[in-house]
Amino acid sequence: MDVLTALLLVHLIPVSTPKNGMSSKSRKRIMPDPVTEPPVTDPVYEALLYCNIPSVAERSMEGHAPHHFKLVSVHVFIRHGDRYPLYVIPKTKRPEIDCTLVANRKPYHPKLEAFVSHMSKGSGASFESPLNSLPLYPNHPLCEMGELTQTGVVQHLQNGQLLRDIYLKKHKLLPNDWSADQLYLETTGKSRTLQSGLALLYGFLPDFDWKKIYFRHQPSALFCSGSCYCPVRNQYLEKEQRRQYLLRLKNSQLEKTYGEMAKIVDVPTKQLRAANPIDSMLCHFCHNVSFPCTRNGCVDMEHFKVIKTHQIEDERERREKKLYLGYSVLGAHPILNQTIGRMQRATEGRKEELFALYSAHDVTLSPVLSALGLSEARFPRFAARLIFELWQDREKPSEHSVRILYNGVDVTFHTSFCQDHHKRSPKPMCPLENLVRFVKRDMFVALGGSGTNYYDACHREEF
């Protein structure tokens, strides 16, 4: 498919149908191919990628390595799957989306019924408090705010099955009689992250023994555990939020769009903006539900395009201004440090925690991507996955290498710590010591100043 065809496919979405909805017929034919994406960023195309509607099995590069390399451990960071909005557009009817899991409804997965059956047996499972009070799968006829949808469950069943085919069937990462200490599972305290983690785990280890499953609770969306106090990180975040605010003020088309939408729903523009309408609009869009109408008119696709376009511009400026990079380096360091610690223990022959799963949010994955230097990476879509693989060279058993994959694409040689690897070394994989040196010391160079460790960088006075 050439770029022109891809563009034409994207524009099969009707912009002005009677109720500004999208006919399901058109919708099904739109399968954007990231390899042939439009040359100019198209807001509708970007939104489709963000929805990540489950379709045919995707191509993925996980588990690819020269034949003399052995897979030692895998560390998976996921964003939860598709969810109901966290905000509603004021004075409009909530989008009617069913959060029960139903076999004859799309999107569907062959393991869906078995997943529900298995989850219903897990009520006695031991999870770290307060996770033990959360439901193990979504089950409301009208979704609750932020609740995982059937689409979200299917996305992660699909992720889990894909990882099972590669890491278990092909690479035998875990033995058939795997033990509880070979898994490390951690999630924030939201039902959508716990349920996403369980869906992926079920796809990965179908009908797992509940006695072997223990999810740890992570109170921080940054997964910073006991290292969360970092004043300079918070200062970077404040400056980044100020940048976002100023960019919004400069966008007259965005302000006009908010004004039009506010008139339609009969609230002050300020109130509509505060309600973060894009979150609710994305839900309508991803679920093919008409945007809301009132007697004053309808919110429509043109409004959606303007707000989505601004989001894309914001991401572009965010990369240029580097404030978010400062926040990301300090925000992502604790979890990266924990990951390399786990990798280093695996290189010593330890057999615990060979498969680690962090079930998280966009605000978890985005700083990690930025800190690794993956500035061109797309904002984490629903059910995004970021994977760190650790490999051992069988010909030189003391040598270990890492691969980084984002949504199935190998991005190792786009990272700050390995982008010059080909120039300096004939080795086909990125040495683990590159990542270790980066996390322990080099990542702080991006902040300027003299700090070469996390504590000093978090407390430096001159910022």
From TrEMBL:
<keyword id="KW-0325">Glycoprotein</keyword>
<keyword id="KW-0378">Hydrolase</keyword>
<keyword id="KW-0472">Membrane</keyword>
<keyword id="KW-0732">Signal</keyword>
<dbReference type="GO" id="GO:0016787">
    <property type="term" value="F:hydrolase activity"/>
</dbReference>
<dbReference type="InterPro" id="IPR029033">
    <property type="entry name" value="His_PPase_superfam"/>
</dbReference>
<comment type="subunit">
    <text>Interacts with B3GAT3; the interaction increases the 2-phosphoxylose phosphatase activity of PXYLP1 during completion of linkage region formation in a B3GAT3-mediated manner.</text>
</comment>
<keyword id="KW-0735">Signal-anchor</keyword>
<comment type="similarity">
    <text>Belongs to the histidine acid phosphatase family.</text>
</comment>
<keyword id="KW-0812">Transmembrane</keyword>
<keyword id="KW-0333">Golgi apparatus</keyword>
<dbReference type="GO" id="GO:0000139">
    <property type="term" value="C:Golgi membrane"/>
</dbReference>
<dbReference type="InterPro" id="IPR050645">
    <property type="entry name" value="Histidine_acid_phosphatase"/>
</dbReference>
<dbReference type="InterPro" id="IPR000560">
    <property type="entry name" value="His_Pase_clade-2"/>
</dbReference>
<keyword id="KW-1133">Transmembrane helix</keyword>
<feature type="signal peptide">
    <location>
        <begin position="1"/>
        <end position="18"/>
    </location>
</feature>
<dbReference type="Pfam" id="PF00328">
    <property type="entry name" value="His_Phos_2"/>
</dbReference>
<protein>
    <recommendedName>
        <fullName>2-phosphoxylose phosphatase 1</fullName>
    </recommendedName>
</protein>
<comment type="function">
    <text>Responsible for the 2-O-dephosphorylation of xylose in the glycosaminoglycan-protein linkage region of proteoglycans thereby regulating the amount of mature glycosaminoglycan (GAG) chains. Sulfated glycosaminoglycans (GAGs), including heparan sulfate and chondroitin sulfate, are synthesized on the so-called common GAG-protein linkage region (GlcUAbeta1-3Galbeta1-3Galbeta1-4Xylbeta1-O-Ser) of core proteins, which is formed by the stepwise addition of monosaccharide residues by the respective specific glycosyltransferases.</text>
</comment>
